[in-house]
């Protein structure tokens, strides 16, 4: 493999034209390397052929049937329908195709075919709509293999992605192995090339798991190496920005309408000790959703400002950054805080506003800079940055942290996360990072009431939302998709908004929010929701992290079975933030028992730690792909809980490698070094770095 092939524009691949290239661009894919790094979302298993009597209702089954009786072709308006019965010795299934008149030639009475598709029970018999048809030998060639399913955008088909990925592999050739043989042998890891190929086109479930394990190991190894190298340069750094306690903070604490919880107080004490101590602060605040981490960030930023320095707060989304900015401004005004001067800097600002913000920052007119990763762009020059706070930092983007920290000299770092990482793992992953746990929710909150329901409950749910809105409350409805056509059977925000407007009285304001909207439009919607100008917000998971609108009391999640449990927990955490009773409605559209069991965990517990534990217990290795955990440390394939043995192994190996070769200058570590220091050399973009 060469760097050149991977940087080759996909437009040069066979079958990728201008139009397809544009669609790929929407998915962030420009080069062959991007394509190879575009892992499937999940996989379809070409399951064994079963008897007609053994099919499972609601699932994809494969059967081998002979067409019996007549094949009927009908036209209904502009639809051509082909329908027939087909059977084996054990039973009969009714099969229907739409708009596929070309099939008439092969569908002759008495002929036998393999059919693969979703089976539905209709009264006393089973039906299959639009099953895929195979010749027996053709199917035997692929049985037990798995077909990738990629994240798509409208107009881009799964087949098109598959073809392009195959093309990219052909053009890239094989990939150089970079792990030493001892390591490969010790953990029985699959070779690098084979793993990359099998993550896209696994020969079987076992191959997929082995490929995933190998790539997970790589992620952990590189992650730990990067951290260790970073730490080496930071080891024993002296505190260049010593701070003293400030009276304004104490006054604010006295005037706030609530008292800090004991756990918040402890976290705040830890921080104060850090920033006034000998060394530089490197602290993680871990606290479940709603435990009150924001105010801790504010106190730290206020202290920094009052000590004459600048501090920055980095949020993962523009929506959250804007919310922090608004709420800080409100508090600053309300409590007449004189020393802190906030500014918002995100990609959503106009060029002019951005320039102005940058000027204010570099000239030191502002001292509390709130934003997204626009904060780490080169154009921002801080005057005297002393503190960086990262909110909802599940990813612990080392790359980002390093880059932002690089803006100032040895700045204090405070990371805040709702993700419960077991302490032992946190120590392996973060070494000397200090951790404060906020294990207590503010008092006076009523536990959220949960229910898991089916689609027939929708009218009741709408009525419930209407009642809550009439009582002055607000509601969120979450759909997995933005617009139609991305996935069958999955609700999308665009159509759902219309549907809900029709279902609710016209004086109830329903609006939508999703990631493809312009940043300024997103901000407007969020602000309007915070102002209560919007009653019901239909949204994708863009509101998942951090959003705080305490007046919202209903969270309804469509296709709840499609989300990971940690993600559901994050979503649910958007309600239950005020004094009123809050409710979470999980709408389960799947018939599978497994989905029911998973959602049942949500039903029973409101505790993030418990949910993470249970989730891990219930998930098998094969599920790791289907249910990506958005809230977890965001490795691409690795899962710190499931793969905790690999995390430990990789941490040990990283230390061993660095002991022998502290700067990774030996030739055998050349590829690893490249992977760590040059972004595009490797197809696998190490998101966690
Ligand atoms: P998270 O930890 O999820 O970031 P937030 O910081 O957004 O939580 O806090 C959630 C809500 O709880 C906010 O409305 C905040 O004002 C409120 N809050 C924070 N600390 C306390 C406290 N000690 N007592 C009562 N309410 C609090
Ligand atoms: Mg928060």
Automatic annotation (TrEMBL):
Stretches assigned to the Helicase C-terminal domain = 457-617
The highest taxon in the source lineage is: Bacteria
Q: Reply yes or no: does the keyword DNA-binding apply.
A: yes
Q: Which UniProt keywords apply?
A: ATP-binding, DNA damage, DNA recombination, DNA repair, DNA-binding, Helicase, Hydrolase, Isomerase, Nucleotide-binding
Helicase ATP-binding domain boundaries: 274-438
User: What class does this enzyme belong to in the EC scheme?
Assistant: isomerase
Q: Provide the E.C. number(s) assigned to this enzyme.
A: 5.6.2.4
Q: Which SMART domains match?
A: DEXDc, HELICc
One of the protein's GO biological processes: DNA recombination
Give any GO molecular function from the UniProt entry. Answer: DNA binding
The record ties this protein, via CDD domains, to: DEXHc_RecG (cd17992), RecG_wedge_OBF (cd04488)
Q: Give the catalytic activity.
A: Couples ATP hydrolysis with the unwinding of duplex DNA by translocating in the 3'-5' direction; ATP + H2O = ADP + phosphate + H(+)
Q: What does this protein do?
A: Plays a critical role in recombination and DNA repair. Helps process Holliday junction intermediates to mature products by catalyzing branch migration. Has replication fork regression activity, unwinds stalled or blocked replication forks to make a HJ that can be resolved. Has a DNA unwinding activity characteristic of a DNA helicase with 3'-5' polarity.
NCBIfam families recorded: PRK10917.1-3 (NF008165), PRK10917.2-2 (NF008168), recG (TIGR00643)
Q: Which family does this protein fall into?
A: Belongs to the helicase family. RecG subfamily.
Name the UniProt record assigns to this protein: ATP-dependent DNA helicase RecG
Q: Which organism is it from?
A: Butyrivibrio hungatei
